[in-house]
């Protein structure tokens, strides 16, 4: 029996995996194993022999069973250790670089100028890009025969044959939003309307879709002086200069009277634009006192209320601020040119605090 014990304990010690353990179990202590066979032999023994051989066989069986269990547990531990070693992750490694998007310069310029006007008390209003010709033209003192209606290179929406209602248009300016705001809110009102507008035009300085921000302030006793101050504050904050000189040139728009185009003093040194100093002037926006007919179209009494309005091209403003030469780059380029101009990934801390150039 000692030989048997030595044989199986030796095999168990040598077993390399669970399958080997199972094979030893079947051979040694299984139903038809060696110990079971020996148990059967007990019947042939004398009672005295049986008294020593029986307990000895049972003890051997227990010993082999516990050696099998211990070896099984040791193998499982070793397998776990191996997995922990081979599947180990260094969570302190730096993450792999990920491709990240950036805010579009037009969005960035739009956010910046919105924040500046918000600080001066202007709310932001938005409206539909598909408009009726009343909101886009008539309410703005641009009647059917008016040349501006043709000048604005309007995109007209298709009407079904036999439908003789005036067609909807892609808004040619954000002014309809201001008419809608006047209708909704009445006076007094201070609002800016940033957003995309459409004109059938395409060359180095025009794209069929571009962005405007228009501003409107209506109250009792508003004058050109309020307009001038507002625009000066805006230009100083947007171009981050302490002082700036604005030049108001008489102009004409159907929706304002009087009307003025506004230039800022600037210089071009070696192709580099400097805002606020120099001997040059650059046109940046149009403005004026809102025409009484337009105030009335918004449902406000022009005998009681006056107002100023202005319109700025955001795309051009972004080009000037960030030094981007061709307007078309805004709409047919990818991230590489944005990176070239120093536009940072969305989660960079300098997002709203100017550019890291
Ligand atoms: C209402 C009343 C008046 C908005 C105005 C301009 C002058 C103007 C251009 C600037 C560059 C368009 O993007 S651009 O091409 N805009 O010159 N816009 S006054 O006047 C309004 C608007 C709404 C109710």
UniProtKB/TrEMBL annotation:
Mg(2+) binds at residue 257. It catalyses: tRNA(Phe) + L-phenylalanine + ATP = L-phenylalanyl-tRNA(Phe) + AMP + diphosphate + H(+). Its cofactor is Mg(2+). Binds 2 magnesium ions per tetramer. It is an enzyme of class 6 (ligase). CDD domains: PheRS_alpha_core. GO terms for biological process: phenylalanyl-tRNA aminoacylation. One of its GO terms (cellular component) is cytoplasm. Gene3D superfamilies: Bira Bifunctional Protein, Domain 2. Its EC number is 6.1.1.20. It is found in: Cytoplasm. It comes from the Bacteria. Residues 116-349 form the Aminoacyl-transfer RNA synthetases class-II family profile domain. InterPro entries: aa-tRNA-synth_II, aa-tRNA-synth_II/BPL/LPL, Phe-tRNA-synth_IIc_asu, Phe-tRNA_ligase_II_N, Phe_tRNA_ligase_alpha1_bac, Phenylalanyl-tRNA_Synthase, tRNA-bd_arm. Keywords: Aminoacyl-tRNA synthetase, ATP-binding, Cytoplasm, Ligase, Magnesium, Metal-binding, Nucleotide-binding, Protein biosynthesis. Belongs to the class-II aminoacyl-tRNA synthetase family. Phe-tRNA synthetase alpha subunit type 1 subfamily. Tetramer of two alpha and two beta subunits. This is Phenylalanine--tRNA ligase alpha subunit. It comes from Ruegeria marina. The lineage of its organism: Bacteria, Pseudomonadati, Pseudomonadota, Alphaproteobacteria, Rhodobacterales.
């Amino acid at each position: 029996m000692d030989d048997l014990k030595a044989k199986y304990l030796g095999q168990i010690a040598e077993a390399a995996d669970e399958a080997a353990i199972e094979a030893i179990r079947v051979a040694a202590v299984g139903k038809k194993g060696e110990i079971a066979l020996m148990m059967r032999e007990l019947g042939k023994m004398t009672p005295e022999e049986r008294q020593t051989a029986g307990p000895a066989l049972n003890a051997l069986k227990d010993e082999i069973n516990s050696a099998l269990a211990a070896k099984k547990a040791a193998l499982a531990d070793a397998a776990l250790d191996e997995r922990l070693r081979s599947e180990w992750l260094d969570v302190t490694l730096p993450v792999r670089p990920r491709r990240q998007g950036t805010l579009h310069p037009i969005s960035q310029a739009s956010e910046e100028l919105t924040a500046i006007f918000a600080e001066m008390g202007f709310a932001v209003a938005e409206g539909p890009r598909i408009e009726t010709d009343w909101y886009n033209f008539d309410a703005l003192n641009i009647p059917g025969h008016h040349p501006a209606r043709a000048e604005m290179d309007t995109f007209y929406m298709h009407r079904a044959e036999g439908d003789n209602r005036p067609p909807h248009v892609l808004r040619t300016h954000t002014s309809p939003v201001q008419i809608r705001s006047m209708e909704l809110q009445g006076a007094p009102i201070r609002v800016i309307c940033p957003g995309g507008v459409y004109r059938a035009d395409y060359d180095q300085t025009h794209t069929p879709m571009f962005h405007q921000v228009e501003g409107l302030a209506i109250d009792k006793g508003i004058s050109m002086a309020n307009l001038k101050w507002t625009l000066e504050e805006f230009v100083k904050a947007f171009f981050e200069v302490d002082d700036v000189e604005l030049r108001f040139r008489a102009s004409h728009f159907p929706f304002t009277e009087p009307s003025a185009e506004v230039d800022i003093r600037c210089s071009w040194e070696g192709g580099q634009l400097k805002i606020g100093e120099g001997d040059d002037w650059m046109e940046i926006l149009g403005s004026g006192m809102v025409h009484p007919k337009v105030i009335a179209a918004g449902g406000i009494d022009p005998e009681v209320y006056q107002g100023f309005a202005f319109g700025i091209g955001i795309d051009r403003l972004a080009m000037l601020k960030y030094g981007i030469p061709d307007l078309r780059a805004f709409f047919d380029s990818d991230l590489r040119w944005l990176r070239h101009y120093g536009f940072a990934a969305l989660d960079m801390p300098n997002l709203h605090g100017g550019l890291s150039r």
